[in-house]
Amino acid sequence: MTTGRDKPGYMVSSRDNAVLSWLETAGIDTSLPSPDRVYDAYLGGSHNTAVDRAFVEKAELILPAIKPLARNNRSFLRRAVKEAVAAGITQFLDIGSGAPTVGNVHEIALRANPDVHVVYVDSNTIAVQTSRLKLEEQGVTDRVTVIQEDMRNPDGILDHPDTRALLDFDRPICLMMVALLHFISDDDNPGELLAYYRDRLAPGSKLVLSHITCDNAPPEQQAQIAAFVDAYKNTTAHLYTRTHAEMTRLFDGWQIEAPGIVSPQDWRQDNPVDQNPESYHLGWCGVAGKV
Predict the structure, then answer these.
(1) Taking CA 112 as the corner, what is the angle to CA 106 and CA 115, rounded to the nearest 5 degrees?
(2) 230 vs 40, 53, 70, 214, CA distance in Å?
(3) Is 241 helix (H, G, I), strand (E, B) or coil?
(4) Strand order across the 91-95 sheet
(5) How far does Cα 183 stand from its chain's mean position?
(6) Where is the signal peptide (predicted)?
(7) How far apart are CA 18 and CA 269, in angstroms?
(8) What contacts 234, CB < 8 A, 6 or more positions away?
């Protein structure tokens, strides 16, 4: 098997070799970039390898606004979590949580309320294992856990013993799928999946979504997004864009909260520094409640 350490031109550190060895021992293909580690690299995190960083370099050439878009998406997550805690929610289910990086859900929520419980879910082995290590180091495993599952298996997530140990489904839960559904194809019926999750949650629960798009972008950026989507065919997961109308349909059965489905920069902005005109038209996000 060709690995990231074998490819010419990649700067491979001792940390990379340790991670690659661990992945290969676990039977994971290390020859392709992994979207969760790539996203971590967009944010300047450390849970990525040379293969992932090489992909990021190419992605930036295709779509120069990708790192600002990732940062704005992360800022949206921060604001959405703070708003949920302020509304009295103390339970979070973060599906597609990815590799641990700065400003995770539990770090934001626990600062606002030490009684918060968080369940992280990811299908990627390295994301789950590194998250477990981080949670153990932080000493929060009594309130925060991570499980390995796929969002397309809702019963496997909702009925997992670790989920049930931390979350009370008779009380509101904030369901988060931030920068996740653009890796779920229409063939997997994301709207039906979201409806199933909604039906399993208590009234007062919230849904937090964000998604890459290009329908509101100028022509030159639409071309960039198309090339960017095509680049993800060389990773472990394909990427799909959705329009504002398609994003709206994902919230069917939920009550969308103000300011509606907007650019991540426009969702209850609290920091002018997060404004970035280059990435403004490249994403949609929204928060909705279950009545």
Answers:
(1) 70
(2) 20, 18, 18, 14
(3) coil
(4) 144-148, 117-122, 91-95, 174-178, 206-212, 283-289, 255-256
(5) 10
(6) none
(7) 40
(8) 32, 33, 55
Rounded CA separation 281/289 (Å): 25
Length of the chain: 291
Query: In the chain, which segments carry CATH 3.40.50.150?
Result: 66-289
Distance CA 277, CA 21 (A): 41
Rounded to whole angstroms, how far apart are CA atoms 10 and 17? 12
Q: Is 26 left (phi over 0), alpha (psi -120 to 50) or beta?
A: alpha
Residue 91 phi/psi, 5-degree rounding, is: -130, 130
Kindly give the confidence (pLDDT) of every residue in the chain, 291 residues in length, as a single tens digit, with 9 standing for 90 and above: 333 433 334 344 444 555 555 555 555 556 789 888 899 899 988 888 889 999 999 999 999 999 999 999 999 999 999 999 999 999 999 999 987 776 899 999 999 999 999 999 999 888 898 899 899 999 999 999 999 999 999 999 999 999 999 999 999 999 999 999 999 999 999 999 999 999 999 999 999 999 999 998 999 999 999 999 999 998 988 999 999 999 999 999 999 999 999 999 999 998 776 678 889 999 999 999 999
Residue 254: CB atoms within 10 A of its CB come to 21
Distance CA 59, CA 62 (A): 5
**Helix (H/G/I), strand (E/B), else coil: 45:** coil
The CATH homologous superfamily of the domain defined by 66-289: Vaccinia Virus protein VP39 (3.40.50.150)
Q: Could you tell me the pTM of the whole model?
A: 0.89
Q: What totals of helices (H) and strands (E) does the chain contain, helices first?
A: 11, 7
